[in-house]
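U., I forgot to send this yesterday:
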Amino acid sequence: MRVLVTGHQGYLGSVLVPILRNRGHEVFGLDNGTFADCTLGSVPHDPPGTTIDIRDVRVEVLAGFDAVVHLAALPNDPLGTLPADVVHDVNHRGTVHLARCAKDAGVRRFLYASTCSVYGNAGGELMTENAPRRPLTPYAESKARAEDDLANLADSDFALVFLRCATAFGVSPRMRTDIVLNGFVASAVRTGEIRVPSYGIRWRPLVHVRDIAQAFACALTRPEHEIRCAAVNIGTEEGNVTIREIAECVAHTVPGTTVTLTCESDPDLRSYRVDFSAGRRCLPDFIPSWTTAAGVTELYRSHLDTGITRGSSAHRFTRLEYLHRLATRGLLDPTLRPRPIGAHSG
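Result:
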């Protein structure tokens, strides 16, 4: 299968591309290059690709592909530090524009990386794909809106699949430490302390980045009639844990780590547990293999192997901080598109 992966130079894309290649697919990338330099360890071997923002894609760029795997997006921003209109422009309107171009180009299958954060603050009930969506951030809202508009494009010649991914963790060639488990490991290694707001009672579903990639690989080859316009939660029920439990797991693995439970109000109100049984039925070949504890150990060893130790800087792996640094240096325009070389100062 000839496959285009958007966001191939991101956290998940850098893991997914070699998996698809190993399965015999002919893989190409599409990325605006914002996070291409956020590497940890060896620089990944990227596929042939096009450097372009998804909002600027034309139909001819997508001609000749059997499938598009759409990962590219602005990251989650619980504190609202990114302009909401830009988040919606990229994650919602940009996604719909990309899908329309794909459909017009004759692409038959479109896999969309959505998120379990569309469930918002759901309490203790397990959320199925049919549960009410209550997005609490512009990121989650943009993903929910994109799902709705993409569904209107589906027909017998254009199969859309929405993979609602749990919170990712684990090692990637292009690392992120701004997602909860990865961030706790980085904090433990760099400072010896994990600070948990509001006693860590909120729920998160966790899933390893390689397991997410395997789910996309499985969805890519399922018969179209079995997955057309399906929303599928990606993860495992065992991954439903509280923030405090995540911190304690990290502290158990990283020597000398203390966990400080603070009485600070947590501005991130998301809290949700997720049911993943539909994924087991819809994607029977998808068998998650990573536990939370194994992922923490993997991350800890990776940090040591790549020289991240006490006092190290990790700003390159914090997506929002990295975006703000690029914008401050004039490398991004107000819409967060990369500026052409020579069009910025300093």
